[in-house]
Amino acid sequence: MASKDLQLDRIIETERFARALTAIAQDHPDPASPAARNALFLFVKETIREGRQTIRAMLDEDGGGILCAQRLSAFQDVVIAGIFDYAVKHAFRVDNPSTAEHLSVVAVGGYGRATLAPGSDIDLLFLLPYKETPWTESVVEFILYMLWDLGFKVGHATRNIDECVRLSRSDMTIRTAILDHRLICGSPELHSEMAQRFEGSVMKNTTREFIAAKLDERNARHRKAGDSRYLVEPNIKEGKGGLRDLQTLFWLAKYHYDAAASRDLVKLGVLSRREANLFDKSGDFLWAVRCHMHFLTGKAEERLTFDIQREIAASLGYQDHPGLSAVERFMKHYFLVAKDVGDLTRIFCSTLEAEQAKESPSLRRVLRRFSQRPKKIPGTTDFIEDHGRINVLDDEVFRRDPVNLIRLFHLADIHELKFHPEALRLVTRSHGLIKTELRENEEANRLFLSILTSRRDPELILRRMNEAGVLGRFIREFGKIVSMMQFNMYHHYTVDEHLIRAVGILARLDRGEEEGSHPLVARIMPDIKDREVLYAAVLLHDVAKGRPEDHSVEGARIARKLGPRFGFSSGQTDLLAWLIEQHLVMSLVAQTRDLHDRRTIVDFADTVQSLDRLRMLLCLTVCDIRAVGPGVWNGWKGQLLRTLYGETELTLTGGFTAASARQRAADARAALAKELDGWTKKERDDYVKLHYQPYLLSVSTEDQVRHAEFIRETRKEDKVLATMVRTYCFHAITEITIYAPDHPRLLSVVAGACAAAGANIADAQVFTTTDGRALDTIMINREFDDDSDELRRGERIGKVIEDVLTGRKYLPEVIATKKTRRRRTRPFKVTPKVSISNTLSDHFTVIEIEGLDRVGLLSDVTAVLSDLSLDIGSAHITTFGERVIDTFYVRDLVGHKIVNENKQANIIARLRAAVAGVEDDMREKMPAGIIAPPAPVMRRGGRS
């Protein structure tokens, strides 16, 4: 890049800089003295500060990512050359240097490519003619210590030419670094000799070895970084589709073709002009993002986290559009670029492979290639199998019949073939053939539906279709969500990747591969009548994301348009539209509603209306949650869904008992008494009278017996307070049961103690016994895989709860020691919402709050409910990334619903303030302990 393009003179006046360094040396009798070094340090430091400020301003002006990296590199060259000249001309001047007193300062690695990010390491090779001398040692140390003092991270080596050659032969990392060598200052003859020796003794006849090593290194790096280019917090340098992938292509091009730039690859026929432009544009965009990231954070930040995405988007000039925020538009652009990098990698590797195959082989290789020569694929005249990969017969295959653009993927699926890079390259160049005629073609849609519902690996084929640009063009509505991300902490992948992963999960469930994880889904899958409709619903359930309208409603409209095209009947199309419109309902009901409340089940049954719909909605819901990302699904969510499914199935089939609640409670008491082995009749009679009807109807007999033994043991030991812990490995949940004197703030204190202990509450059941004691069960998300480790954790949390309740620890102080949960929630904004409903339950008022997650939120909310004299029957805590939806079933102190409008308005106002964090801190009003003094009795979940 010419200096004129870089505008280096605007950043630093090179001659003036050199004169200033000479002046510093002349001002000090000893240019190597500490005083002279300090003067040099202060001047260079200020020069660097001003220069980097100018470069950042220039980046904001012209937006050139590669230009910015080249300006930083050129500026760094001037600084290093100036320090070198000071050292050799002033501090360690030798008037008649010997051959051994020559030195080259060579940039290697990324710096050797004349590109540098603001926070990058400075990779230097100090090249010697022979072994190190006292003079070269002094000069190298002077340069290194000055750079370190200036705050640079310097990767360095001091070697002679023989050492460079020998180490490059044995160490691929060193070989790659020296491949990108560039003289900064010092002896040009020494550098030239090293370059010739490296090319002749290291690179010659080692192309195959180098390519294999670099591709293996790339694959390992991808696995370490998540092996997906669609992670919503990508590593822009090391991640799949990032800068390192482009640099790998550059290394291969330089090593194999001796190409210095993308235009050289055009001349060689490796890339088309369009592909070369794409190479340059992709690199420029990624460099711009990386430079902005480093300038913004003040360090070598390579992960594009939520914390900085919004600011980077603003720096790059993105604006909000209907349905997509500026940051979402920026990230969509990023993922499209990452996809382009993947396309370039595939094209480049295809050409390399073809060229290496033409090398003169031995007789054995000739015979092997003859035995494995390409052969026609049965049933087609346009495609061949080439070493286990599907390829096209000629370059006119798609032009002759555009349906072949879909048939290629269908044949790969049914014959379980990989894709030849040349075939995918031709697909990429044939996008213009995907027009309305092909989209409406009956055969093309039949083939696509066969791919989608394949019992082999539809996820793999759909991903290849998507990466080749076919899926988004064949289904244009899908194309709109390709590379689209949602700016939240809940979804781990782009929308298209989420949908394709969901199809993969459904296929594995369909094949019976996940029966252990999803026994209910595995059992009902064979009963699904409209299998093709279910697969289509899973693929399309989020297809309307990024639009101003509700994506469920808009998605149903799209489904009604696509259904007939796929060959669905009107009834199947209606079912597809219904599944997409209702795809969030089952998850929300299961996680935010009381599944022991009869109204919940009846309302949900009215929504689904039939067993077929219920089965399909369950399968869709499981696939949707599972495909969100690692750690989102757990056994507890599975159990909630199974409970909702089971209760709804009974209702839909008329299996729900018609017995009154009073009769069922009496039956539950009798069943409990029968199970209390070893108890006297009086003990049994006294105990079963302790519990109110809600407890008897909502807690299983097995758990009632366990609670009975726990309460009996607590009474024997004459304890005021006790906790019991049980782990559920399959459910990924840990249950903590608290037995204590009742108190208005009990649940609030328990929630605060859990927050202080770092435990995330998933659900809570709260009951009061007839003697005024509380029996509360708190379900927290599991942290450890090993049961013994998780049990110890649960016991520690139980101990924190006991310490807070008895006053041994003061809750505000305990919470204050806990760091604010997930600092990364700061970039997000969730408008606090509070709603009150008296129709969702026959016996309770249902309060639902939504807001930004934070430590102590549940404690604050339950404290407000207590202040408002509300009796909490059950609490259901749901977290979607940074957003929480908490639901409380409440009544007033005399057991009635909250119907007064003024009181409802007051509840909403107080809770909204608590969620927003502006409510008076209720924790400050809590007593030091609420168990030790006599506590007023408040029926929480008590009377029916």
The fraction of residues assigned to DSSP E strands is 5-15%
* Distance between the amino and carboxyl termini: 81 Å
Q: Which CATH top level class of the largest domain fits? A: Alpha Beta
Shape call: globular
Which bin fits the share of residues in helices?
Answer: 55-70%
Taking all residues together, what is the mean pLDDT? 87
Low-confidence spans: pLDDT under 50, at least 5 residues? 819-823, 920-926, 932-944
Oligomer: single chain
CATH architecture of the largest domain: 2-Layer Sandwich
Biggest sheet architecture: 8 strands, antiparallel
Q: What would CATH call the homologous superfamily of the largest domain?
A: Beta Polymerase, domain 2
Placed side by side, the strands forming the largest sheet appear as: 9-10-12-11-15-16-14-13
Tell me the number of helical segments per DSSP (H or I, 4 or more residues long): 43
CATH topology of the largest domain: Beta Polymerase, domain 2
Task: Give me the count of strands.
Answer: 16
List keywords for this structure.
Four Helix Bundle (Hemerythrin (Met), subunit A), Beta Polymerase, domain 2, four-stranded mixed sheet, 5 domains, disordered C terminus, 55% helix, eight-stranded antiparallel sheet, 944 residues, single chain, alpha+beta, 16 strands, EC 2.7.7.59, 43 helices, globular, Hydrophobic Seed Protein
